[in-house]
Write a structure and sequence with these properties.
By secondary structure, the protein is α/β, with parallel strands linked by helices. Helices cover 39% and strands 24% of the residues. Helix 9 links the parallel strand 10 and strand 11. Helix 12 crosses helix 13.
Length: 450
């Protein structure tokens, strides 16, 4: 802890962070050089030139970070945290084969609160060390994932999953909704927890199920978080069963609107992009997962051109296999350029906003997180740009997206509390979680071989 001599009219604050650069995200593309970020009571109190901070503030703790850039905590807009325990389990397969022949049978055999807790803890460590301070999840036993996130002291937008198939969590759609509401009631006052309704996908939810989801979402004002238009086969099945494409079916059922987060949105026609835009929907772009499962690449440049809010997600570790938003940012920017044929289609400043403020906006959390502004929660990531591989640094935003990676993340704060220091997670025992993951691997691999 550092201190400084007292002076008249100085305000006492909890924390002062000095960095070579601060990228507040708002306004887009702005970079502040040699500024200090002031934290008090878990919130950002001020951002000002460091020489002015010397005069205005006394601090209980000071962190000096030469060669570093401060950015808001990254927001992982779509994932299945517990599936870290299935990382690499069934690689190099198309989506429906992967799901039907491998993932769903494994989940049916091993799904339990313990599986979800251990997988989610492992995911939280990986994400925190990668600069992710908030993740939007979709999985069974959401209460176990919430407990893991609270233990890690990071934010979670808990997706209350709804699906027509029975599982160890619930027997039918009504059971999923009832249990989901019980979880929401139990954790709704936790400041690090928010909620979404998470119908799995159009192909796994009947009309009656989706109508109930829409009713619940409207009554309690929750986002709807759903896989949509991930594969061409999904669209073909919808045309055969419902005689409309999935997105049009959702529109007919009343699900589309500013509360809707469409995950993947790979196979979209021009009128569907217009529909998403006119309804104020959001898109969670998961480039690595889409490429690994050979699903395709979302038309992100066209989505952005239409004014659609696009955030970035990793998907689960079973289909990525990393929970690394830095990698997703870079890949999103490069794919958008390659698919559109325009080098300017997705500039670095937009990619960084997609990984921070855009994700927060989709979750309805942009008044609290997603940018570094006074009054917002102090969710902060310090990225080290001092190494040889980061030199020379003409533009720190460009460097963050095209050169840096999660290995450059040095410190992370959530609501003003340091949870990663010098690249080490402070809130969870990483060695303990690694041992548990190995035990799960032995059990799952032995069962699969049998």
């Amino acid at each position: 802890m550092n201190s400084m001599p007292g002076m008249r009219n100085q305000t006492v604050v909890d924390l002062r962070i000095d960095a070579d650069w601060i990228v507040p995200i708002e306004p887009l593309g702005k970079v502040l050089e040699h500024h200090s970020l002031i934290v008090g009571e878990g919130k950002i109190q001020d951002i000002l030139p460091s020489h002015d901070a010397d005069v205005r503030y006394l601090f209980r703790e000071r962190v000096r970070l030469p060669g570093h850039v401060l950015i808001p905590g990254l927001v992982n807009l779509h994932g299945h945290a517990a599936m870290t325990l299935l990382r690499g389990y069934a690689d190099d397969l198309p989506l429906m084969t992967w799901l039907n022949k491998h993932i769903w049978p494994a989940e049916g055999r091993w799904m339990s609160p313990e599986f979800v807790m251990d997988g989610s803890r492992l995911a939280c460590v990986e994400m925190l060390k990668s600069g992710v301070t908030c993740f939007n999840d979709m999985y069974f036993f959401p209460d176990a994932t919430i407990e893991a996130a609270l233990e890690a002291r990071m934010r979670v937008a808990s997706g209350l999953i709804v699906i027509d198939f029975p599982s160890a969590w619930a027997a039918d759609p009504d059971g999923y909704l009832q249990k989901g509401m019980e979880v929401r009631d139990a954790y709704r006052h936790q400041p690090l927890v928010s909620f979404c309704l998470a119908p799995h996908a159009p192909y796994s939810c009947a009309d009656r199920t989706l109508e109930k989801v829409q009713t619940f979402a409207a009554q309690i004002d929750l986002p709807i978080h759903m896989h949509i238009h991930e594969t061409e086969d999904e669209i073909r099945q919808s045309l055969e069963s419902f005689h409309v494409r999935p997105l049009r079916r959702l529109h007919q059922l009343g699900l589309l609107g500013p509360q809707f987060i469409g995950v993947h949105s790979v196979h979209l026609e021009a009128d569907e992009i217009d529909l998403l835009a006119s309804q104020g929907c959001h898109v969670a772009h998961c480039p690595s997962s889409n490429l690994k499962l050979a699903s395709g690449s979302a038309p992100v440049a066209s989505l952005l051109d239409a004014g659609i809010n696009v955030g970035i997600g990793t998907d689960g570790a079973a289909s990525n296999n990393r929970l690394d938003i830095f990698e997703e940012m870079r890949l999103a920017a490069l794919l958008a350029k390659g698919v559109s044929g325009r080098a300017s289609a997705l500039p670095a400043q937009t990619a960084l906003a997609m990984a921070t403020l855009n994700g927060a906006r989709a979750l309805g959390l942009d008044d609290r997180i997603g940018s570094l502004l006074p009054g917002k929660q102090a969710d902060i990531v310090a990225v080290d740009l001092s190494g040889a591989a980061m030199q020379p640094c003409y533009d720190p935003i460009s460097q963050l997206v095209y050169s840096a990676g999660r290995d450059q993340v040095r410190h992370v704060w959530v609501a003003g509390e340091m949870v990663v220091k010098d690249g080490r997670c402070l809130s969870l025992d990483e060695a303990h979680l690694v041992r548990h993951a190995r035990q799960w691997r032995e059990k799952i691999a032995s069962s699969s071989a049998g």
